[in-house]
């Protein structure tokens, strides 16, 4: 029995030893074991692969930065030479690739440089009791980087006079003196401030809609004028604006209005509003009613050309040299066709010719202003040369291919524009080529526009009055002078197709910039670029219904160097694609959200969707469509009183807006 | 002791027979193929008994179907648990996507370079080596990226030739071989040290010239006045598009798309040993696991060639069902070659199954448009 128990013990002891012992014990030893560096430091790591028997193995140990995203923060060579570029903590891996591959993950820390200077910005010359204002701490380190990740305090020597709260609001309580001291690490800076008696004894409040009906979406500019007891205006005293509202619909609706601290106010919903201005203990207010914008109009389907077997991409509608009206539509992921339609009678849209080229997608189609030349783009050519095809559309029922141009355009042309005998072709999603087509049978490239930002990409280019507006995803909208003329709404820079010159740009954080449409507001004279998104965060099923995201950003340019994003049109359940603006009306394709016709008259501010500006909505669906009964609207074009639109799933449509009525459309 | 040895031998024999019976009775073969203009990957199942192929599953891939990107290269991990697809073009960079083979679910992505193309995983390092073909960029050297397929992180970027393509790993996993299409070079990279170890000029008549010499010659020894540098430096003849190492011999075979040749290279001597004249524009090729057959796609004529590597003779040329033949992968039992064919325009692509011994097309299945990258996954009963 004893023997059996001993045997059992030995058996269990043997099998209780973890398997692959040697593999578990072999490891990499990196020296030094803990590493904290300063910016600019360099250090050579050493490493050895140690076997289970605690012997150094001959395997070469290689070092890798775990995430290439950090490669500009820390340099790691394969043999372990580390260069510290940017503060932070980074993961590094030491590996061997011998018979027993080993891996050791470890971290290095690059210390933040010490703070070397601190300051408080935004303290005005005159400070008044019973007011408050924002101040900005500025903390700079030894590498002259302004830091926002370091602790600081702002203390007041006499908090009964003034102090700075947790949100960097300087609260001025009463007349007197105090010293504000900003400290971070071991650096401090003090400011002696003196708070004066608040001289304001009255506050007048006026606005630019006095005597007018205020509608949802109307931007009202309020002006508060603080005055002292002698009636003199006190210009440098802070004034804050706010509002209260009694909405007509108080059943849980969202925010009713937006008010900025420059006094601009816009209401989203109808109701009775009271706007208040406050300075010190003085408050002034004005109450007014906001009415419905009441812009809805009926919309009627006039005609359609259903494309039943392939997906439809872009469209262009033009007047032919014979005075009749025509449209061309592209196709997506199909047989490389462009369809030509007679749309003279929009109730009878019918194809008159088809051009087929070696491609899978003819994404974009454009026609010259004189109606004789068209360009179609190619993707998925079997020889992978892609490029563009230039067509003679003088007789749209007998379209002729004039030339194929692929020079430097092999990566695929997704979009193009024709302007003054040049084609602007978006090349490989990376740049746009400017191609002279004075002789359309012999095109040649005259210049190329490409950004120099890291990872730059481009989606579209649109020309107006000699200015090219390109849409560049993460790099936003970029305006280039390619021969601006006197009709241009903004000043040019003497550019030409051969020598394009940069004018201005605007970038926004999402990186979704897909289209751009410049316009001068007919009602205000302001110049805007409507910058549109494209995004498919829910994926895209090419064989079924879909849902998109993204919106149209309204960027107001007060000079090329002064863009400001002031408003958006966002359909919450859908996403923007192509759009057109004419006479202060936005015609926007919103993919699954169909066509949206939107009143963009007046100054633009805030969320236009919430402001009851939508004139009409149309969801093109057809049971015989390529994707039946499912809208996915690609792009609209207002033309001779109708709105033509292409829909990815169904083809080409013509709709017409009815007349406005007092009651709007039901 | 003798009895124990006997038992061991029997056990080994039994195990061997089990393995053999598994292979011999294998009825189904599975390959993955990418349809570049459809943003889809298909899993194709071929039933050897009925000699019929079908699409077992279609997986939508890619980031932005409405844009110009599309799936190009495809590979399966040595353990068969994951497959990888490169999304070429991009915005502007392409990406690598990793999927589970059992579920075909996406499990990770990482950003690559310009037009990432072909790739393979080294069984030695476990790392994936993918070339950034940069098909539509200027004629300048591109790179190969080394990706840890577990973490899906790029570990290293290795500068290589102009338009690198055909990234394949030596059987021992120690080296990556690929070709530089626009500089007519075969390039060898150490999978372990991640450095370019050798380059071989493939141009006929320039084989003895060390790669890079022609550059030096142009720049230093010649009177450059009036010469067109871009034409002079990038005047590829062979335009190699693919390379595949022999499974047992120290040889690699290169598809010379521009000169209609297959080039055999002795990697011990690092020299060209044979050139075979082929059909028009050989594009991809693969050597069978038994080392006997080489199957090459002839992109320019829509056919597939079967070569006997012993004799160096093309033993069959089989017309594909449509134009633009693309990729090829061979089953591990060396019986079947699976060929992807792109088609043109709206035409579907196809995967065509060729019985190598019988030298005939036994079946084909239509795929999404522009069938390209293709890779064998598994055999099963």
SSE layout and pairing:
The complex is a heterodimer of chains A (666) and B (381).
Chain A: H1 2-16, H2 21-25, E1 27-31, E2 35-38, E3 42-44, E4 46-50, E5 56-57, E6 62-65, E7 74-76, E8 81-84, E9 88-95, E10 103-111, E11 115-121, E12 127-128, E13 131-134, E14 136-141, E15 153-156, E16 162-164, E17 169-172, E18 176-184, E19 187-196, E20 200-207, E21 214-215, E22 219-228, E23 240-247, E24 257-259, E25 264-267, E26 271-279, E27 282-291, E28 299-306, E29 311-319, E30 325-332, E31 337-342, E32 350-356, E33 365-367, E34 373-377, E35 388-392, E36 400-405, E37 413-419, E38 422-427, E39 431-436, E40 444-449, E41 460-464, E42 467-471, E43 477-481, E44 501-506, E45 513-520, E46 527-533, E47 552-557, E48 563-569, E49 579-582, E50 585-589, E51 595-599, E52 606-607, E53 614-618, E54 633-639, E55 642-647, E56 651-657
Parallel strand pairs in A: 2-10, 12-19, 21-27, 48-52
Antiparallel strand pairs in A: 1-4, 3-8, 4-5, 6-9, 7-8, 9-10, 11-14, 13-17, 15-18, 16-17, 18-19, 20-22, 22-25, 23-26, 24-25, 26-27, 28-56, 29-30, 30-31, 31-32, 33-34, 34-35, 35-36, 37-38, 38-39, 39-40, 41-42, 42-43, 43-44, 45-46, 46-47, 47-48, 49-50, 50-51, 51-53, 54-55, 55-56
Chain B: H1 2-24, E1 28-35, E2 40-47, E3 52-60, E4 70-76, E5 82-88, E6 95-100, E7 106-111, E8 116-121, E9 128-132, E10 143-148, E11 153-159, E12 164-169, E13 175-180, E14 185-190, E15 196-201, H2 213-221, H3 229-233, E16 240-245, E17 251-256, E18 261-266, E19 271-277, E20 282-287, E21 293-298, E22 303-308, E23 313-319, E24 325-330, E25 336-341, E26 349-355, E27 360-367, E28 371-380
Antiparallel strand pairs in B: 1-2, 1-28, 2-3, 4-5, 5-6, 6-7, 8-9, 9-10, 10-11, 12-13, 13-14, 14-15, 16-17, 17-18, 18-19, 20-21, 21-22, 22-23, 24-25, 25-26, 26-27
Question: How would you describe what is shown here?
Answer:
The complex is a heterodimer of chains A (666) and B (381). Chain A has 666 residues and is mainly beta. Chain A has four domains: 26-111, Immunoglobulin-like; 115-196, Immunoglobulin-like (Sandwich), CATH 2.60.40; 209-291, Immunoglobulin-like (Sandwich), CATH 2.60.40; 299-657, YVTN repeat-like/Quinoprotein amine dehydrogenase (Methylamine Dehydrogenase, Chain H, 7 Propeller). A five-stranded mixed sheet of chain A has the order 45-46-47-48-52, with no helix packed on it. The model of chain A is unreliable at 1-23 (pLDDT under 50). Helices cover 10% and strands 49% of the residues of chain B. Chain B is globular and about 50 Å long. Chain B has a four-stranded antiparallel sheet, with no helix packed on it. By secondary structure, chain B is mainly beta. Chain B starts with a helix and ends with a strand. Chain B is built from three helices and 28 strands. At the A-B interface, loops of A face strand 11 of B.
